[in-house]
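// run 5 | inverse folding | seed 20
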């Protein structure tokens, strides 16, 4: 049994993306290993996993793309730095075999240095995706870097050919997300397009609104919140009227809202992986999304890869997906990413990593 520490500042506050990864992975690893989560949030989702609340700023800030953020000197990065420094003492005392830092930036550097003193291994999972943030994570030379897609693994190998790099995708909990979930009632005409996303600029939700507006019969249910909420609501109501609705709900309600729809779409320019694709497919929704090799690997035959910036083409592909009977293709594709399967890959990797 290994003693494993996971550092996740936004766990207990945020329920999407990497925080879902932390919850699902720790829940399954705890059956065979001793897991401790260090978080700034106060909510403890899994009482079977030891959790330390480190008092720190934990509200996810607005997206920052400037010189300070590139140098990890923006407010968000400095809060993660302070959080990590507060965790240091407990890491020295905890006698951990493995540390998994998920917030990148200074946290990755500090944990790598600490690991040399306490003899712990370090595993970093590439949730930032291809680009500067995960390049920084690779630069810290953890004991293993876990790419989420084949494309990311190939990219990482080019940066650090001497480093151990594995590929393990994200997963979905099929006991929560599945076609048997009862759909909610929403005041929208069918067919309904679902988009679940943080309302940040790079998600390009405005393109989705414009594409749905090109159709005469599609409605849009937008699930999420963020800095662009007001702008997107104004655009949606102006272009779609009663065919537009935005809701923000708890993570445990997401499946019942996915089940309202006939299609799922997310027009983001890039995605490290995109857990929402898995959740939607698990609820048997076909996907319409940006075309690239990573998303092709995730979606397979369960949807359409499009060019969202070409609004006319995007609109046609949404309509095509709505008119196509995908049968159980989306759900069958999601079966490949069951957390029960994915966790076994992590357990095998961790056992290999810590056994001398």
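// decoded
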């Amino acid at each position: 049994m290994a003693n494993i520490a996971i550092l996740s500042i936004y766990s207990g506050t945020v329920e999407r993306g990497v925080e879902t990864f932390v919850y699902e992975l720790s829940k399954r690893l705890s059956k065979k290993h001793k897991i401790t989560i260090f978080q700034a949030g106060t909510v403890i989702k899994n009482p079977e996993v030891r959790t330390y609340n480190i008092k720190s700023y934990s509200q996810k800030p607005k997206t920052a793309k400037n010189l300070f953020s590139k140098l990890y000197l923006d407010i968000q990065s400095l809060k993660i730095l302070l959080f990590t420094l507060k965790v240091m003492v407990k890491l020295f005392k905890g006698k951990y075999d493995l540390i998994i830092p998920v917030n990148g930036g200074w946290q990755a550097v500090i944990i790598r240095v600490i690991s040399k003193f306490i003899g712990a291994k370090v595993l970093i999972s590439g949730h930032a995706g291809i680009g500067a943030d995960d390049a920084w994570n690779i630069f810290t030379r953890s004991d293993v870097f876990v790419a989420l897609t084949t494309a990311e693994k190939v990219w990482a190998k080019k940066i650090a050919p001497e480093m151990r790099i594995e590929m393990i995708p994200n997963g979905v909990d099929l006991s929560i997300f599945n076609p048997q979930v009862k759909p909610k009632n929403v005041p929208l005409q069918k067919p309904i397009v679902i988009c679940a996303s943080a309302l940040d600029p790079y998600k390009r939700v405005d393109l989705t609104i414009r594409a749905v507006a090109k159709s005469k019969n599609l409605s849009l249910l937008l699930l999420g919140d963020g800095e662009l909420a007001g702008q997107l609501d104004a655009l949606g109501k102006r272009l779609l009227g009663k065919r537009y609705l935005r809701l923000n709900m708890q993570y445990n309600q997401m499946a019942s809202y996915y089940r309202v729809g006939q299609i799922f779409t997310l027009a983001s320019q890039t995605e490290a992986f995109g857990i929402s694709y898995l959740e939607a497919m698990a609820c048997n929704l076909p996907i319409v999304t940006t075309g690239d090799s990573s998303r092709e690997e995730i979606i397979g035959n369960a949807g359409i890869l499009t060019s969202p910036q070409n609004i006319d083409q995007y609109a046609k592909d949404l309509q095509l997906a709505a008119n196509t009977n995908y049968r159980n293709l989306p759900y069958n594709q999601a079966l490949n990413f069951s957390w029960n399967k994915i966790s076994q890959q992590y357990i095998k990797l961790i056992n290999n990593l810590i056994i001398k």
